[in-house]
Amino acid sequence: MASELLRKEETLTMRRQLIGQSCRLFYSDDPVKIVRARGQYIFDENDKRYLDCISNVHHVGHCHPSVTKAATDQMDLLNTNTRFLHDNLVLYADRLAATLPERLSVFYFVNSGSEANDLALRLAQQYTQHEDVIVLDHAYHGHLMSLIDISPYKFRKLNGQKEWVHVAPLPDTYRGIYKEDEPNPGQSYADTVKDLIEESPKVCIIHTNTLGTQTIHPDIHKSLFLTRVTY
Questions:
Q1: Class of residue 14 by CB neighbours under 10 A (exposed 0-12, middle 13-18, buried 19+)
Q2: If DSSP states are collapsed to H, E and C, what string results for 173-210?
Q3: Is 216 found in the same domain as 127?
Q4: Bridge-based pairing state of the strands 41-44 and 203-207
Q5: Full domain range(s) for residue 205
Q6: Do residues 69 and 154 share a domain?
Q7: What is the pLDDT of residue 230?
Q8: Does residue 163 lie within any of the structural domains?
């Protein structure tokens, strides 16, 4: 990489020439050129500081010194895959297992959310020998073709909904069909999923967002997963 920064206009021109248009650029008319970041802030080429509210989720902030040191130390020692036998893989799995119920004790490590969701889908389809999937409206599960097909946020702009994909209403008590003043909105939303299961006996997985950048009604997963909703 060049030690001197390109001028902002040069960077923008090169991006438009070299990067696919489907890769979205924030504030494309007059984009902010970012050159470094720290904590919750990003900085442009003039060292102007911005509070970063739109990047993907950085739970400990940008360039956290403990994270960068751990990554640097490990890459300086060993950077390999799961096909080799080494301690870090099993020690990390053991630490994860200690935080989960006993039945959740086998792990597959992947590189991204898209890979994780694709693997979950394939495992569910293989185990049940069924194909149908239930998802929440407006959901986005990743950029692989298998995940575009189960992401209403995406497939409605492309080829539409597949017959084996079933969309449940988003449990939004502000804009959704069941508001906060309902007697039990969480259970009402869970019941819509139960209805889909009864109508579609070949459902292999309920693919929902349990944690992320959105807020899910606190009762929805309790109502959905702690009661009998599957065959």
A1: exposed
A2: CCCCCCCCCCCCHHHHHHHHHHHHHHHCCCEEEEECCC
A3: yes
A4: unpaired
A5: 110-225
A6: no
A7: 43
A8: yes
* C-alpha neighbours within 13 Å on the C-beta side of residue 143: 3
Residues 131, 204: one domain? yes
- Reading the block at residue 204, the tokens are 């292999």
DSSP 58-91: -TT-BT-HHHHHHHHHHHHH----TTS--HHHHH
Long-range contacts of 93-99 (CB under 8 A, 24+ apart): none
3-state secondary structure of 124: helix
Is the domain of 44 the same as that of 125? no
* Helix, strand, coil shares, percent, the chain, to 5: 35, 10, 55
Q: Are residues 142 and 181 in the same domain?
A: yes
Q: What is the CATH number of the domain that holds 37?
A: 3.90.1150.10
Q: What count of residues does the chain have?
A: 231
Beta carbons of 121 and 133 less than 8 angstroms apart: yes
Provide the pLDDT for residue 2. 47
* Residue 101, amino acid: P
DSSP state of 133: E
Backbone region of residue 47 per phi and psi (left: phi > 0; alpha: psi in -120 to 50; beta: other values): left
pLDDT of residue 201: 87
Mean pLDDT by 10 residues, the chain (231 residues): 77 96 90 94 95 81 94 92 92 96 93 94 96 93 94 91 94 87 86 91 86 60 53 39
Find out whether 71 and 83 touch, Cβ atoms under 8 Å.
no
CA distance 221 to 210: 8
